[in-house]
Sequence to fold (593 residues):
Amino acid sequence: MKHHRFKNIIFQACIGLLASLMQACSVYTEHADMQKPIIYQVFTRLFGNSTDVNQHDADRATNGCGTMADFTPKALGEIRKLGATHIWYTGIIEHATQTDYSGYGIARDHGAIVKGKAGSAYAIKDYYDVDPDLATDVPSRMEEFEALVDRTHKAGMKVIIDFVPNHVARQYHSDVCPDGTEDLGASDDTTMHFSPRNNFYYFPGETFTADFNLQAGEAEPYVEQPARATGNDVFSSHARKDDWYETVKLNYGVDYTGGRSTHFDPVPSTWEKMLGILQFWADKGIDGFRCDMAEMVPSEFWGWAIPQVKASHPGLMFIAEIYGPDAYRRYIHEGGFDYLYDKVGLYDTLRAVACGNAEASAITSCWQAVDDIRPHMLSFLENHDEQRIASDFFAGEGKRGRAPMLVAATFSTGPVMLYFGQELGERGMDDEGFSGRDGRTTIFDYWTVGTIKRWRNGRFGGKELTSEELELQSFYSKLLNLCSSEAAIREGDFFDLMYVNPKSNSFDPHSHYAYLRRSGQEVLLCVANFSDNDSELDINIPEAVFELYGLKPKTEANATDLLTGTTTTIAFTPSQPAHVRVPSLCGVILKIK
Fold:
């Protein structure tokens, strides 16, 4: 009996060890032969603007506007030095605006249905045109975009632009679509609320109304009859101030008010038209699409369209803005997306940890929830929709983004993204106009981004930047370049160390997060410190690491912090914890050979 009891104890111990390993270890297989994309998102019309006016809710003539020409070879070279492999030029496609370009044959937009003087880049007015705000010579705007793509490629980076598939501006009309291309809505039967042959959803006999003024200083009020469904799935003829009232919903063959029944055979008209738009921009030599609110469009469309685009443009990248974890795998496996936003899991958790509202140990559950698809998850801490790290609404200062960014950038083989100015601690606390003082950089107004302006005015050096801004920029540059240069980050294995590092006299799971990345015989010990104090930590490395990867334990191993270049000696053995010094609000990436 004692013999059998002993065998049972050993068996249970092995089961426990296996469970721990499954919870701690992730071995990446997908995308292992690919470059880890480092995406620099830039709001195109704001990057090059250097006006000193910045008047609240002012027009283009007063506040100025950046153009594509501001992305000079010098500017692009500096962005590349930061570590970027891709630039996402936000706001390229023509959208509704209160600026009058009718002198160039572009129909004027009614001000009541445009948000801000500049307008939202997500209220697309003509899918086949470049936004005139971005051109130095409006009639040559497409040629200027093609030149921008060429300059970006010569600088060693790839080009991503937005594809906005779910909705368009209320006064959408393409005046430059290719010959033989039918405009959206041109053949719609407006007497029907829903038809799979229609491009929009209609409310026959009803006029569009809103709980705000539909005249808004114009000579005549805006009139839409019959009314159409609003872009944020408002299936009503009435829109509220907080709706996406400037847009109308596109119809992909889903009858939302008819039990969400689908009508995909024959292929709906909208599918064919949107495929043509994707092919049009792919033919311009771009390298990827960031697809706005992709989950508001049926995955069946993506599964039909993406393979066709990739057939003629192999390697083209598709990124989905998506917020529903239940839909993740469908949009990858059926929809064909390369990458999805990791917002609801990783972003929300890292933000909570950085603000002291969650324990660092909560990060473990983020990767566990998506481990089978983790190479497809895009990490970020800022984008045009989110509040700036340094804003009063987030962490209050840019340096508090270092520890979470270290994790976001290094704990996966998937892409990492930063928003222009993030590397300088841009606060986003201006009251620009429609946007207001909300901790975000406006996407609706003509404005100058202060940190970017000073960086550019100093010829992309430190002449006009503060010491704190330069220090933060240096951190981002080192971190992002490591993502490309270090095989362990780019394509290696991941091992979470939190399960063997409970709260102790030195290690605190509330403030510290530790994990390994490994490629061959090279190991990176990554430790993020979310606390305000420098920490001296004793970190346990379990025996399972050495057995799993065939590594040889060392009581004295040389370890170089890749962020600072400092070399130290640590124990790298299961019998003795590694003693590591970690600066406050930052971290270390110790390379152990």
